[in-house]
Inverse folding.
């Protein structure tokens, strides 16, 4: 299986490393700046291509790790070329784009897989399995929390450009919107409050209440307002028969305390953070590798996946509804989409 | 100082009775309870006299009483105490309707007696530490808060907690008021909007009130805060529940947990348990009640504070019913 990766930022690099744990072979890279693609090509013994069109004829699968606003156009182009597609989350910048991408992939007979990697993190998978096994009974109140620092690339920081990324709510909170839907079912209503004015706040911070069709309620917190190197996740799933609790601080197996000047953070891994927050708990296989192995097996022999492109579209719809709620100050009803049964 | 307790319907009365019976400068003059068997039992347990009627206790001219009746019965007992010219500390929530709450405020003001609401979080050492941090500007302006006050479904503490007629509601009424009060105090601002969603999935077969609740409230200064008031702690859990806040300020973030100061205890025979070693906030709250009486000044947490916190819980019920945010006018 020949893989091409477009986009070589934090996620492109993470995926490239993860692919090395599968039998697939990365054959080409495309980047906004050709020299970045060339550096990655050298590292992974592949070719650099100037653009997507010149890469597509050489690959079976395109792995799209570009900024969100570019996903739609690239997916359509890949589908037209008959290449299977892995698209980083969020699926798209708008529901209409997402719908078009799903339709085009179906018509072209190519696979469209969305990188909602949280569905491959062992703590989240474990909780999902426990819920399915009846550990908490009927799900009643879900709490999901993801607190990180504001992405801080010095150039081209598209994360901070609402038009391109959809901001913190679409880029970060979408993980937990997707997970809430996974463990508590389809969402009916979203109410969300948010701060994000760079003049007055240290980073975006959002709180949302989701009401699920089955009556369960979820509280979702997403934050870019913590200082680096914070990457903290917490969740609780409470139901008629029990409660599951996760706290990444409580489960961190290693704490390092370093002597150093000043009052900087002294605990945690003790390592400096990258520009873009990426979670890390010591595992023998990174969840990104687990995800790409699952994608590989699905593409190779149809092995089942824990999510569909339609799930990616549903998560996108919730995130955009949350953004709309912050703008109108009202709860937003989720309209059923024909794609999402 | 001579203090008494009116009604042991609320189990917090046990903690207050323990404090009254062990504080050196308190004369625990007695217990009155309309449930005679209950009142006599606790009177024996804490070595205090039992009075067969509330009037009989008040006729002893105590300096103050602590009222721990069912929520809906706070108002008649406060009225009795005010008429007798006796200072009152009333268990939370202050009342079950705004009209009752207002009547309590008016009665105590007219009688010239203190009405204090029993909000022990105002006297919790970790919660106070963060208040001091906020007051010295350590977090800058607080922009958003995520807060939780979850607990076990309390029917096993006292059956009336889950009876809407006596309690005024379920988890929303029981657990919203503590955080609504802490947030008003921390932010020095009033709640202007309340959005809430509730459900009854946990313990659906056992109770008729809501057991799950999430609020997203907005303050006049623009800060917003969520409150999880759910009875989402299973019946087998190391403790009754807890209260914690994550505050996002423009200078940083603070996480505070009012109940993390525990030992974890394991044994060959019992479920794991948390053995608290935290400072006693109930005792500190009674010390403030006594200081206010002695110094003839308003207590640091007033009846009005209880009224404003109850107002948020009542607005949450209206919002949950409408499916829309509800505005509170001041």
């Amino acid at each position: 299986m020949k893989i091409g990766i477009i986009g070589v930022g934090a996620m492109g690099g993470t995926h490239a490393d993860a692919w090395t744990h599968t039998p697939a072979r990365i054959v080409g890279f495309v980047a906004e700046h050709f020299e970045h693609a060339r550096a990655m090509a050298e590292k992974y013994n592949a070719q650099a291509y100037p653009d997507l069109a010149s890469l597509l004829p050489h690959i079976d699968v395109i792995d799209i790790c570009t900024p969100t606003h570019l996903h739609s156009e690239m997916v359509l182009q890949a589908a037209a070329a008959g290449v299977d597609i892995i698209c980083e989350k969020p699926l798209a910048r708008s529901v209409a784009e997402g719908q078009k991408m799903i339709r085009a992939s179906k018509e072209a007979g190519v696979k469209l897989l969305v990188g909602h990697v949280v569905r491959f993190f062992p703590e989240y998978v474990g909780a999902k399995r426990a819920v399915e096994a009846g550990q908490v009974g009927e799900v009643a109140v879900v709490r999901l929390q993801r607190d990180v620092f504001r992405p801080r690339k010095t150039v081209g920081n598209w994360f901070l450009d609402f038009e391109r990324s959809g901001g913190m709510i679409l880029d970060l909170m979408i993980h937990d919107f997707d997970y809430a839907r996974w463990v508590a079912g389809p969402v009916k209503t979203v109410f969300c409050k948010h701060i994000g004015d760079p003049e007055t706040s240290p980073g975006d911070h959002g709180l949302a209440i989701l009401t699920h069709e089955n009556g369960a309620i979820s509280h979702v917190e997403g934050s870019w307002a913590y200082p680096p190197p914070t990457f903290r996740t917490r969740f609780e799933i409470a139901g008629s028969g029990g409660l599951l609790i996760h706290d990444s601080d409580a489960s961190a197996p290693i704490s390092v305390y370093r002597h150093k000047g000043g009052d900087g953070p002294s605990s945690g891994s003790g390592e400096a953070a990258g520009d873009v927050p990426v979670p890390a708990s010591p595992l023998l296989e990174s969840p990104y590798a687990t995800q790409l192995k699952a994608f590989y097996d699905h593409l190779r022999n149809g092995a089942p996946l824990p999510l569909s492109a339609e799930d990616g579209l549903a998560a996108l719809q919730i995130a955009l509804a949350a953004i709309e709620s912050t703008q109108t100050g009202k709860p937003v009803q989720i309209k059923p989409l024909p794609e999402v049964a | 100082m001579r203090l008494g307790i009116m009604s042991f319907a609320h189990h917090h009365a046990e903690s207050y009775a323990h404090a009254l019976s062990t504080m050196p400068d308190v004369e625990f003059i007695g217990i009155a309870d309309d449930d005679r068997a209950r009142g006599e039992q606790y009177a024996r347990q804490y070595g205090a006299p039992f009075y067969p009627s509330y009037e009989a206790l008040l006729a002893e001219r105590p300096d103050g009483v602590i009222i721990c009746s069912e929520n809906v019965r706070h108002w008649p007992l406060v009225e009795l105490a005010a008429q007798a010219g006796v200072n009152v500390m009333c268990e939370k929530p202050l009342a079950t309707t705004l009209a009752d709450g207002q009547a309590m405020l008016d009665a105590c003001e007219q009688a010239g007696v203190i009405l204090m609401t029993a909000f022990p979080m105002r006297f919790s050492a970790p919660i106070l530490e963060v208040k001091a941090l906020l007051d010295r500007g350590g977090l800058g302006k607080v922009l958003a808060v995520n807060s939780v006050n979850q607990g076990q479904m309390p029917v096993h503490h006292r059956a009336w907690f889950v009876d809407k007629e006596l309690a005024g509601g379920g988890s929303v009424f029981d657990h919203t008021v503590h955080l609504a009060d802490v947030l008003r105090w921390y932010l020095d601002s009033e709640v202007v909007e309340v959005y809430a969603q509730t459900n009854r999935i946990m313990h659906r077969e056992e109770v008729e009130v809501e057991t799950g609740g999430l609020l997203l409230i907005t303050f006049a200064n623009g800060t917003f805060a969520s409150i999880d008031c759910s009875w989402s702690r299973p019946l087998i859990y190391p403790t009754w529940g807890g209260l914690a806040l994550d505050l996002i300020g423009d200078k940083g973030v603070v996480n505070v947990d009012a109940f993390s100061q525990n030992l974890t205890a394991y044994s060959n025979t019992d479920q794991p348990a948390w053995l608290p070693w935290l400072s006693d906030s109930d005792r500190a709250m009674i010390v403030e009640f006594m200081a206010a009486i002695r110094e003839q000044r308003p207590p640091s947490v007033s009846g009005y504070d209880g009224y404003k916190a109850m107002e948020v819980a009542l607005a949450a019920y209206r919002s949950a019913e409408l499916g829309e945010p509800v505005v509170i006018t001041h």
